[in-house]
Amino acid sequence: MPLIQRELHRIAVFHMANERPGHTLQPTALVNETFVRLLEGQVIAFRDRVHFLSLCARVMRRILVDHARARRAAKRGGPAQTIQLDEALGIPDVARADFAALDDALLALATLDERKSRVVELRFFGGLTVEETAAAVKVSAETVMRDWQFAKAWLQREMRVAIG
Questions:
Q1: What Rg do the C-alpha atoms of the chain give, in angstroms?
Q2: At what angle do helices 141-163 and 130-137 cross, to 10 degrees?
Q3: Low pLDDT (below 70) residues in the chain
Q4: Of 99, 104, 123, the residue nearest 161 (C-alpha)
Q5: Euclidean distance between the first and final Cα of the chain, in Å?
């Protein structure tokens, strides 16, 4: 458990690193909230580490999106921010991500191609490697890379349209 918690904390630190100063959500709180939501009222049998991280990625996404939507609602539609989905050390680089806009774009992508949306969720929110993502979605690493490249281009276009 400490190894998984450290890995989740590393992912949370990554997501929170470029947030605005004084952000109310801290990496440790994000990890703790992920555990609480993941385990609240349910007994989940995790098949393996990748399955666990996959579920954590989905929960972490929901937490970040919920937080962003609440903040946006409080600001009554403040300006959207750009997300960079370039990779750095195996995890995408994010600069003050607008998780709500990304979530909207991912939902739109999922209506076109659920697997590509899932690949982004696992790689971006879960910090999974190409190989781990391939195992989670049961495709080859090459397919994951093709999905990742397509999804990045599609999301950047979609978010640019939505923002600008």
A1: 15
A2: 100
A3: 1, 18-23, 41, 72-97, 161-164
A4: 104
A5: 43
What tokens appear for 38 in the block? 């993941």
Residue 87 phi, psi dihedral angles, 5° rounding: -90, 145
H or E element in which residue 87 lies: strand 87-88
In order, the DSSP letters of 6-63 are HHHHHHHHHHHHTSPTT-S--HHHHHHHHHHHHHTT------SHHHHHHHHHHHHHHH
Nearest Cα neighbor of 49 from 114, 131, 105 is 131
The torsion region of residue 68 among left (phi > 0), alpha (psi -120 to 50) and beta comes to alpha
Closest CA to 7 of 121, 91, 112, 109: 91
Copy the structure tokens of residue 79. 């300006």
List all residues 6 or more positions away from 149 whose beta carbon is below 8 Å from its beta carbon: none
Return phi, psi of residue 62, to 5°. -60, -40
Q: What is the pTM of this model?
A: 0.60
